[in-house]
Design a protein that fits this description.
This protein is of the alpha/beta class and 324 residues long. It has a domain of 106 residues. An 8-stranded mixed sheet has the order 6-7-8-3-9-10-12-11, with helices on both faces. Strands 2-1-4-5 form a 4-stranded antiparallel sheet. Helix 4 packs across helix 5, helix 4 runs parallel beside helix 7 and helix 5 packs across helix 7. The longest helix is centred in the middle third of the chain and has 18 residues. The protein starts with a strand and ends with a helix. It comes from Primorskyibacter flagellatus. Belongs to the ABC transporter superfamily. This is ABC transporter ATP-binding protein.
Length: 324
């Protein structure tokens, strides 16, 4: 369904060219829930926006993004708009910012149907109400007449999901869809996304930093750090036996929610390197307890490790070569 090959997203500034996404590659099979995780600043959201043709103004997108066999990199805006919404639906992480405050919720969902020629007039509004009911919003007719500020955050997120699936897309890109929600509403939204995937035969690209969300829905996981892929593999094997030290730290931090009181926090020193000041060799080496001189000098490449692939000179599980 989706093939990303050597994707780069860069920006030009006074200090030269800054590369935010640096040559990443992956594929997503039809019907799969593929999850991209990483800290803020890792490039995961920018990757999703590049796939949807929504990279920020001034960004240069390189490489290939083949969606359903068509390379969408460099498509004229008019042609990309026919793909986005109709074949690729998008759920944004800030539903209040994604919705127009001066139009009702129903009008905004109906607009997606009108723009893509699927319904007009009263039929479009009736289908908007039906979509709100599909995403389990109580009293959908009232919500359709409401403005975004008049409904709760959970309802706004459901409305954005209704808009994203209005045209029965093949691919759903969900960027941090549960970030601002409390635990109960988060669980309901995840259940909703699972049910819509089965009902509509959706392929889902989910972007998050919440490992609890990953455990609930992922078929495969890609871990990003500082604009690069550090690990990718089936969810079960990656979460049970992470190969990259960075993945291990992410998992350990997620487990802190279940730790007894007074347990020392699992932390990793330092922070994600700024654009334009990436370290030589492995980009994680300044924060990695397993780093050696090789890590500081040589860029690791993805290779078979455990049940997936990892870009690490000293992985936490043995490689096929180690087993020989």
């Amino acid at each position: 369904m989706l093939e990303v090959e050597n994707l780069t997203v860069s920006f030009s500034g006074r200090d030269g060219r800054a590369v935010a996404v640096d040559g990443i590659s992956f594929s997503v099979a039809a019907g799969e829930t593929f999850v991209i995780i990483g800290e803020s600043g890792s490039g995961k959201s920018l990757t999703g926006m590049a796939i949807a043709g929504l990279a920020p103004e001034g960004a240069r997108v390189g490489g290939a993004i083949r969606f359903d066999g068509q390379d969408v990199v460099g498509l004229p805006d008019a042609r990309m708009r026919r793909v986005r919404g109709r074949q690729i639906g998008i759920v944004y992480q800030d539903p209040l910012g994604a919705l127009n405050p001066v139009h009702t919720v129903g009008d905004q969902i109906a607009e997606a149907l009108r723009v893509h020629g699927l319904a007009r007039g009263r039929e479009a509004m009736a289908r908007a109400v039906s979509l709100l009911e599909r995403v389990r919003i109580p009293d959908p007719a009232r919500v359709a007449r409401s403005y975004p500020h008049q409904i709760s955050g959970g309802m706004r997120q459901r409305a954005v999901i209704a808009m994203a699936v209005a045209c029965n897309p093949k691919l759903l890109i969900a960027d941090e869809p549960t970030t601002a929600l409390d635990v109960t509403i988060k669980a309901q939204v995840l259940d909703l996304l699972r049910d819509l995937k089965a009902e509509l035969s959706l392929t889902t690209l989910l972007i998050t930093h919440d490992m609890g969300v990953v455990a609930e829905v992922a078929d495969r996981i890609l871990v990003m750090y500082a604009g690069t892929v550090v690990e990718v593999g089936p969810a079960a094997s990656l979460m049970d036996r992470p190969a990259h030290p960075y993945t291990s730290v992410l998992l350990a931090s997620a487990m802190m929610a279940e730790a007894p009181p007074q347990t020392a926090l699992t932390v990793v020193p330092g922070g994600t390197p700024p654009l334009g000041a990436m370290p030589e060799g492995c980009r994680f080496h300044p924060r990695c307890p397993r780093a050696t001189a090789r890590c500081r000098a040589e860029v690791p490449v993805l290779r078979g490790v455990g049940g997936g692939q990892a870009a690490c000179h000293h992985p936490l599980v043995e490689t096929p070569e180690d087993a020989l």
